[in-house]
Design a protein that fits this description.
2 copies of one chain form a homodimer.
Chain A (H helix, E strand, L loop, with lengths): L3 H4 L10 H11 L3 E3 L6 E3 L1 H20 L3 E2 L5 E3 H4 L3 H7 L4 E6 L2 E9 L4 H11 L8 E10 L13 E11 L2 H21 L6 E4 L11 E8 L5 E11 L1 H6 L2 E3 L5 E3 L1 E8 L1 H10 L16 E5 L4 H20 L4 E3 L7 H10 L4 E5 L1 H6 L1 E6 L8 E5 L3 H26 L1 E2 L4 H9 L2 E6 L3 H11 L2 E6 L7 E2 L6 E2 L1 E6 L3
Parallel strand pairs in A: 3-7, 15-16, 15-17, 20-21
Antiparallel strand pairs in A: 1-2, 4-6, 5-6, 7-8, 8-14, 9-10, 9-22, 10-11, 11-14, 12-13, 17-18, 18-19, 21-25, 22-25, 23-24
Amino acid sequence: MIGAKTLAEGVTPQSEDYSRWYTDVVQKADLADYTPVRGCMVIKPYGYALWENIHDALDRRFKETGHVNAYFPLFIPMSFLEKEAEHVEGFSPELAVVTVGGGEKLEEPLAVRPTSETIIGHMYAQWIKSYRDLPVLINQWANVVRWELRTRLFLRTTEFLWQEGHTAHATSEEAMEETLRMLGVYVDFAVNEAAIPVIPGRKSDTEKFAGAVNSYTIEAMMGDKRALQSGTSHYMGQNFAKAFDIQYLDQNNQLQHCWTTSWGVSTRMIGAVIMTHGDDKGLVLPPRLAPIQVVIVPISKTDEERAQVMPVAEDILKRLQAAGVRVKLDDRTELTPGWKFNDWEMRGVPLRIEIGPKDVANQSAVLARRDIPGRDGKSFISWAELEVKAPEMLATIQQALYNKALAFREEHTHQPETYEEFKAAVDDGFALAWWCGSAECEDAIKNDTRASNRCIPMDQPGGSGKCIFCGKDASEKAIFGKAY
Amino acid sequence: MIGAKTLAEGVTPQSEDYSRWYTDVVQKADLADYTPVRGCMVIKPYGYALWENIHDALDRRFKETGHVNAYFPLFIPMSFLEKEAEHVEGFSPELAVVTVGGGEKLEEPLAVRPTSETIIGHMYAQWIKSYRDLPVLINQWANVVRWELRTRLFLRTTEFLWQEGHTAHATSEEAMEETLRMLGVYVDFAVNEAAIPVIPGRKSDTEKFAGAVNSYTIEAMMGDKRALQSGTSHYMGQNFAKAFDIQYLDQNNQLQHCWTTSWGVSTRMIGAVIMTHGDDKGLVLPPRLAPIQVVIVPISKTDEERAQVMPVAEDILKRLQAAGVRVKLDDRTELTPGWKFNDWEMRGVPLRIEIGPKDVANQSAVLARRDIPGRDGKSFISWAELEVKAPEMLATIQQALYNKALAFREEHTHQPETYEEFKAAVDDGFALAWWCGSAECEDAIKNDTRASNRCIPMDQPGGSGKCIFCGKDASEKAIFGKAY
């Protein structure tokens, strides 16, 4: 209940200042808070409950695809990071470095992990001996640190929580299969749990992970039409295997280097959920991830009315709990129903059940959808149907959120034919355009428009065309957009 | 499968070298491994699966007692640690300190959290305004770092995983109630999940947490008769509330300091499980925490026999899965049944089901208990009873492990009347003895015998006696023992 009193004050409208709207929602919905530690946030209980649901939904999928969890050290010797040239170049500007331990200056400074390819690569080199040990399919849930100058709650923080999968395989084909399998897991999670339509695609060389051969991404469009990279899956080829001597004896007793992958989703996903579904009343949570799916608000003006209403509210609570719904009864007496409505709308609870004296008389209740404001989102329901209708309604809301976000993205995705059209397109969202594949065009576009190459979508139209910037032959289309 | 080949080699017998036995078990059962990062371990997948079960069993209890999870920063400004005098004195020798971030020297160095009272206290001071905001009941699952000179896998590592609960209350009574409630939760967990008999008690002033008014502990006896502190719950009084200005307006609109608690259990609990139940064949896991509760080993000498046996083994697998048992079918063809038996015994799987051609003919199977070696632990069972009998047997094993550990502790707990008897007692385990309460006696005993004051048990005999060391009046008995 911390901070509850400030909740009903409302947030800055999206149209006025999207960035302030975002920060208002994060704070007023009690998801996270700033701390005196530069760039580090507190994930508050409500935000953490959302992360727990994201964790569980991903973890289940990882285990279903044969992965196991493990835990590797927080600290990485600086010399390890230097073993893969592109990797150290990419990460060294962002490192937090421990130089003192137990009161003494360390001989070799330790980096706080910005990601764990190097320390995990070192361990895999010890563990993997033979083709029988492969594949190694390990995931880690952990905190990582990347020193950031400009931070935003959930989107870019110095410390964040994530999962990082690290796998080793006998062949290039298997490693590539794994890379794309996990990209598919991320798409499945985004679409079916977070109700976020995402575009799976390959990153350009400019945008790929430091040390990868190829990086794959799921890109989503936020409510301000900007892109958010929401998860990545990297095919490392033999880069890390060679840097860390991850080798195995094959069936012919020949020593071979492994082929490795890594893939990650972070607390940034919470930012994606907020900015995909939120509105001027606050957060809107997809039912499958919502810590509270249904809130029951009893309505009474007198003690007598309260005595009628409360037993019914408690009965509904128990029945929905038994039906597996995450439900809360807001029985606070010091607050008005109107205040509570605003409060739970701010927190994005998908479905509200109102119970007043009239409803008791009619053995009915009012269901109010968070995603459809006002009367259109309200319906009456008889008590007898609750266990069936409430979960049905949650499923309807889940699908409606996805549909709405998809329609929004499609409305703001354009296929420009000229560079002039391209510039207008990236001012209004995504441009899907032929691209020759050169970093020069990519850079020039970015300098000119601030739109970056988000990905080369897996789903290509086929055929060929002319690069939207230089006019040279192009065999692939890319998505460009301004990004977080 | 990593490292499987070395598993059947066996471990150093406990009687030969208990310490080596422990390290052998941790490594050969694939629980954890050393890393090149001083004092930091890798928790391998099998060890991590055990930790996940510990996590889930504790987390469920925390939520049932009204707690929520949150996440606070990894880094703590050095000035925060200095705000509570005893706290900084206790922890500063153990700190890892970040002095460089993003390539630049930091103005104020950041400690990697050794525990989070200070940063959480600072946040609570921002969040708590009124008595309506209390109690605050938050837990955090996190990694912490304490620079250790001598480390042992799980028992004492520079980085470890734990949970730390931090609560704030309006009154001293409520805070003390919470402190003891969580001690009770730890007892419940230890006894009913880990099958470890523990002694709940109060720490002496010498042994209490740096900054606490009173610390409570659960103490367990390991297989070498030494004590292991397995969880602690601290009553902070107003020490941290005053250091961090955690204040609230009471019902009379008066500003009051809160009363706070903290409590934690760490990956050290895995060490407790290993050393309470393990034997010369390796790990013995309590069924409720075991990642694999039942392993099915099919036995066949010919392809024809295998064709008979495997469908039955697979059927048993499915039926036990459907009955909610964590079960694995070991269908590896390159290994003998005997090798597999040793392998799964090393890994502590509580129950083995053997299926051979004779069993197929009889529609029966052999159940072999991990905790009872040889024939005495074997029984025949008909297929029809499997879903009932296997879970029953797991419950029996769970209870048997507890009973065995309790009997062992009781056998090695003595109530000496003289100091000579006391010295003999602490050479053989625990001494429960009258103690006058002075740090001088405690220190003298420790210097003389290497046995420390483990706790003043909650369960006291009543009455009074003479201090075992100085002979002065004593009103409480304490447990003394050599400790990890």
